[in-house]
Design goal:
25% of the residues lie in helices and 30% in strands. The protein has 258 residues and is an alpha+beta fold. The protein has two domains: 206 residues, Bira Bifunctional Protein, Domain 2 (BirA Bifunctional Protein, domain 2), CATH 3.30.930; 38 residues, Roll (SH3 type barrels). A seven-stranded mixed beta sheet has the order 1-2-3-7-6-5-4, with helices on both faces. Helix 3 crosses helix 4 and helix 3 packs across helix 5. The radius of gyration is 18 Å and the shape is globular. The chain binds biotin (BTN). Biotin binds next to helix 2, strand 3, strand 6 and strand 7.
Length: 258
């Protein structure tokens, strides 16, 4: 696979009307783009700054799990965000990003893209993308948010431990797909969805997320909570019903038990 064509994407972003990907930093190799983006954020990087790498030595997912991605084959990038939203809306940002990724991915494939609360995008029930949001809060203020995204684009096979649960865009389409085009589409959708998020359209965004909710109605285990998933509330928490009683879950990994 060839290295990411940063020159072409830089040109496209510089001509775009939104503020994302201005600037975009490309690294052949790094430990984690989330760490690189956090360093930039602490040094004052502006909202929309992107760090993308062809290979991450220590890419991580939620809960400190490793994130596996073949070098030069997929997309691994992080955005520095300084969202102007009430701090109570922030937990929903992962779902808003997931919505944008799902919409972008769907433009390349022939199947609908679903969202598995809180941070996965699925095609035919298999994970095509994971999102890792890490925020720096000081008292009641959000200093910055780092939104890291891994999107499987051109990978055709996966390690045996995840092969039944993973997929990529190329495996779900007959069309030609490039990493540069996928990044462009994802950033365009993110720009639109984050603009709505900042202008107070959280209820509308959550209604869109609900249409793609792959967990609703399924029997799930999340941490200590077991029951039937009953959708996602306005603050981004998962509702789980057990014996007629609703419990809300703020964070965790969903395991399907049916
Ligand atoms: C998950 O599925 O748990 C989230 C995976 C997030 C992976 C991306 S790849 C770019 C960024 N850098 C990281 O170290 N992680 C995120």
């Amino acid at each position: 696979m060839t290295p990411f064509d940063i020159a072409s994407i830089n040109k496209r972003f510089s001509e775009a009307e939104h503020s994302y990907g201005k600037p975009i930093f490309y690294l052949e190799e790094t430990s984690s783009t989330n760490d690189e983006a956090a360093i930039l954020a602490r040094a004052g990087a502006s909202h929309g700054t992107v760090v993308i790498a062809d290979h991450q030595r220590k890419a991580r997912g939620r809960g400190g799990k490793p994130w596996y991605s073949e070098p030069n084959t997929n997309l691994a990038f992080s955005l520095v965000l300084r969202p102007r939203v009430p701090i109570t809306h922030l937990p929903a940002i992962t779902l808003v990003m997931g919505l944008a990724v799902a919409e972008a991915v769907e433009t390349f494939v022939d199947v609908p893209a679903g969202i598995k609360w809180p941070n996965d995008v699925l095609l035919r029930g298999r994970k095509v993308s994971g999102i890792l949001v890490e925020s720096s809060l000081s008292q009641d203020r959000c200093e910055y948010v780092i939104a890291g995204m891994g999107i499987n684009v051109l990978q055709r096979s996966f390690p045996s431990a995840i092969e039944a649960r993973a997929t990529s865009i190329v495996l779900e389409t007959h069309r030609t797909v490039t990493r540069e085009e996928v990044l462009w589409q994802v950033i365009m959708r993110l720009a639109l969805r984050l603009e709505s998020f900042e202008s107070g359209a959280l209820p509308e965004l959550m209604a869109e997320v609900a249409k793609r909710d792959e967990v609703r109605g399924r029997k799930v285990q999340v941490g200590d909570v077991q029951g039937v998933a009953d959708g996602i509330d306005q603050s981004g928490e998962l509702r789980v019903i057990l014996n007629g009683r609703v419990q809300t879950v703020r964070a965790g990994e969903v395991t399907f038990v049916d």
